[in-house]
Amino acid sequence: MRRRDFLKVAATSATGAVLFAGCGRIGDGVPETEFKIAQPVYTPNDWAFGRDAWFATAAPPDQGGYGLIVRVFEGRAKKVDGNPDFPGVLGKSDARAQALVQELYHPDRLAGPQRAATRGSGQFQPISWDSALQEVAQILRDAGGERAVLITTRPSSSQAAIIAAFQRVTGIRHAILEPDELVVLRSVVRRLFGVSTLPIPDLANASFLLNFGAEFLHGWIAPVQLARAYGEFRQGRPGQRGLYYHVGPRLSATAANADRWFPIVPGTEGLIALAIANVLLTEGAVPRDRFAPYFAALGLDEARLTNDYSPERVATTSGLTAEQIRDLAHALVEHEPAVVIAGTNAAASTNGLFNLVATLGLNLLLDSLNQPGGLLLNPEPPLPELRIMDDAILTQRQWAELFQQIQSGAISTVLVYRANPVYALPPATGAAEALRAAQHVVSFSPFVDETTQLADIVLPDQAWLEQWGLEVPDPGPGFAAVAVRQPVVQPFVDARAFGDVLIQLATQLGQPLPWASQEEATKTLALQLRRLGRGNIQAADDKQFLVTLQAQGGWWDEQSRGSGTVPSSPVVQPREPSFAGDSAQFPYLLVPYPLPSIGYGELAHLPWLQALPEPISTNVWQSWVEVAQRTADELGLSTGDVVRLITPQATVELPVYVNPAGQPGLVAIPFGQGHTALGRYAEGRGVNPLTLVAPENDSDAGTLAWCATRCRIEKTGRRARLARFEGMVPAFQLEEFPIVRVMAPSA
Amino acid sequence: MPRWGMVIDLDRCIGCGACVVACQAENNVPINTEDVYHQRRAIAWIRLERYWEGEFPNVKARYIPVPCMQCTNAPCEPVCPVYATYHTTEGINMQVYNRCIGTRYCSINCHWHVRFFNFWEPKWPDSLKNQLNPDVTVRSRGVMEKCNFCVHRIVKAEQKAKVEGRALRTDEVTTACAQACPTNAIVFGDLDDPNSAVSQLLAQAEREHRVYRLLEDLGTEPNVYYLKKVDVEATATAAEAH
Fold first, then answer.
1. Is A361 within the bounds of a domain?
2. Which of A376, A411, A443 lies at the terminal end of a domain, its last residue?
């Protein structure tokens, strides 16, 4: 290498400084020349420094849809991090974002379109894109729009625009599969605050956080945004440290961070919120006029709240003492500004809708909506095309109805995009039977999951890092924001973006969509942002706008804030939780919970996430039953004992993890495992808790109440080895040298 | 010349494991399969430990990320018979992989258990090898490996600064774990630069009496500093004792 070349290359290799560039075809410039730099001061470890670049893109919609950057070296994606410019995350990311490269280079990714040898066999044969598209177009032509359904996970915002256009020309029905807890949350936010986007707590400016069960630091709706704000909440303001109380049945990974944890009976969150409101009312702690919308939403009045929901009465059912309930109420008014959030388990009881209305409604009493340190409402997406239609998100009850329609033949053709209803819905819903009965099933999944196994044809979607798109983060950072997704590498396999396939199918049906590709749809929609004449990008022309958009990774307008309405009519009536199973026969309550790493199982195919220890138990790669120490002592169980976990629905055998923080009377089990497909890293591990839970619905929301089943435990006398991190190194607190040191807050 | 160090604020840490995965991605750490866990031979240059305190219902789970402490007087260094582990002039405790003969003396002498031996040849399916970081050597069977404060990033930044004829800027370089950490619990930088984020954070935390180091009394002078977890239920006496 000549000296001049050396200087050129060295000057452009930047790791510390983030180099953004318009994407274009980034594979074109490779391979770059690698070279070694002899560094006698350091080690001769064969460092090979070439030219790398960081490209801005976006996280998947179900991971928050926020801005990311990806390091690309010689046409290969190497590392994902948060976009330092993107509002809310400001350069931060999480384990799930880091693992996006493993989706891209996953050894079990489908290499191209496939046709099933026999439906359900799991065996597929490669076919060409042309013949696959012709076949699917013919299927749609034969079925007609009214006899076809498109089932998706939550799509990206630009995909939503393409799907809507596809629906307009084909008449196909669109159904979105989201975790039940989010279905309830969206419903409550819409009915309580009058907005279709999720709100975000302004933790960075809050003094007190009261959380009813939401796993807001490990998954949930916006883990990176909320985690970053949590850091500021705790130690970002010199002399002021935010206080966090957690109310929930389990000391979860998130609850472990709380200053105080209040263990409760699952499903009593709403009743506790009413008792808190009772204290606030009877003690005159908040102005009385703030109660009107709260009463309206819950169909209550002052007399009922005072008489029926006193701390003493609620204490008998909730597992808390009246004094603890009063402590919670007092903390809300003593530490201003305070904010209340709720979700996960709280939304998954038979009274989940009531729980969230009563708990999130406390923000009305605190007057915290859209206040610094309160609950910030997010605006509607800046373009109507980017809005995801709420009515497409189905509840458990609606899924059962849809699958009945498929089984009866009223719907003959099912298209499935990245959704996995066979795994993600309880067997009683009938997803597998319906798909077997359907005349045609077409999957767009990049992997052979349980649902794709029942498909006739698979048209694999590109990985998230290979495609174009726009994402409106939901929840946003409190103002309008859009992240742009651009391919950071050339497609690694012969896959096509789902939007491209819909556009090509529409063309084959003789009803072309307004765009020629997903890329064009993305850019056309992006340019509509420019037409709004506001936001962070000042550009002289369209080209400059697009280049700047891609370089920055998004568009945002801090002036565009959300506003809502307060309820004036009843949303839900107070309701106590109920549990399936006789308490004498099934003495324990079963509390399933999503894993921080692999969630509800949608990420179980990514080995980094499978290998990431669950923070509380430190278990990896499997399922287990968490049993309280006291329960374990009574039953003579220790960690590693295999037990029979029996519910009215099913029986499974699993190893026990004795949890020192477990609540007696409760048995917990993680979601995420129990896959029979989805690749080598997911298959054949543990059990899917959805096979255990009774098909109990939240009667108000129509969603699955997966935290409403009783169970019992029987010893098998066998033992199993639990793969876990604890014990890997001899780590224990030493009296004289404490590993984790704790101090009281300074005065 | 910089003196690299790290500050980990336990009051910000939420135990999410973003640091663990970011480190694996950056440093070509092999996938810790279920078998590897069963063998008790998982490799994690930074790991997340969880400690229990108290009993139900007054029970606490405490998280602490543990990377190499980069001790100034590192006990792992003098025991290496082939000088494969040594100290850089910038304070990093380094491992020369192609010099290591796998005696594992360094691992035995490390009180923090942050040195890892490659009992097997690292394996990835061919397609996943596309993700491997070309700046970092893949370690072979029979050698030790450990956290090196992402030294390849430091070297790269220093060379860039040299080419541009300037000194390294304050906080120009950071480690993969610190970059990912969503709560900013991990901060990396030059301890000798009074303007660096680590120096300023340490100065403020010293005033609040929050700074400590793991197993500090051993006298190895770690360059990883911890800031104490704050707990409203901790008694003033306990705070003083710690």
1. yes
2. A376
Chain A residues 158-177 with CB within 8 Å of chain B: none
Give me the half-sphere count of Cα atoms (radius 13 Å) on the Cβ side of residue A658: 15
Q: What pLDDT score does A49 carry?
A: 56
Q: What is the mean pLDDT of residues A622-637?
A: 97
First-last CA distance in chain B = 33
Boundary-marking domain end, from A310, A343, A376: A376
Pick the residue from chain A with its C-alpha nearest to B83. A43
Question: Average of pLDDT values for B118-124?
Answer: 94
- List, in sequence order, the alpha helices (H) in A309-361: 311-318, 322-334, 352-360
pLDDT at A19 over 60: no
How many CB atoms sit inside 10 A of residue A533's CB?
Answer: 6
Q: Within an 8 Å CB–CB cutoff, is residue A38 touching chain B?
A: no
A216 and A282 part of one domain: yes
What's the CA gap between A285 and A329, in Å, rounded?
Answer: 9
Determine the residue type at A231: G
Written as six digits, the tokens of A119 are 């439906």
Same domain, A170 and A195: no
Asked if residue A737 belongs to a domain, the reply is no
Domain that holds residue A612: 588-719
Give rounded-to-5 percent helix, strand, coil for chain A.
35, 20, 45
| A252 plus A166 within the same structural domain | no
What's the rounded Cα separation, in Å, for the pair A740 and B79? 29
Supply the ipTM of this predicted assembly: 0.96
Do A700 and A572 form a contact (C-beta atoms < 8 A)? yes
Our CA angle for A647, A648, A649, nearest 5°, is 85
Q: What's the CATH number for B4-241? A: 3.30.70.20
Closest alpha carbon within chain B to A75: B130
Q: Is A717 left (phi over 0), alpha (psi -120 to 50) or beta?
A: left
Q: Do both A170 and A232 map to the same domain? A: no
Nearest to B157 among A16, A257, A726 (CB): A16
Residue A328 falls inside a structural domain:
yes
Q: How confident is the model at residue A28 (pLDDT cuts 50, 70, 90)?
A: very low
Instruction: Establish if B88 touches chain A: CB-CB under 8 angstroms.
Output: yes
Structural domains in chain A (count): 4
Average pLDDT over all residues of chain A: 92
| Backbone torsions φ then ψ of B211, nearest 5 degrees | -85, 135
To the nearest whole Å, the CA of A595 is away from the closest chain B CA by 11
Distance CA A390, CA A152 (A): 13
Residue A369 corresponds to which amino acid? L
CB B70 within 8 A of CB B112: no
- Is A733 contained in some domain? no
B126 interfacial to chain A (CB closer than 8 Å): yes
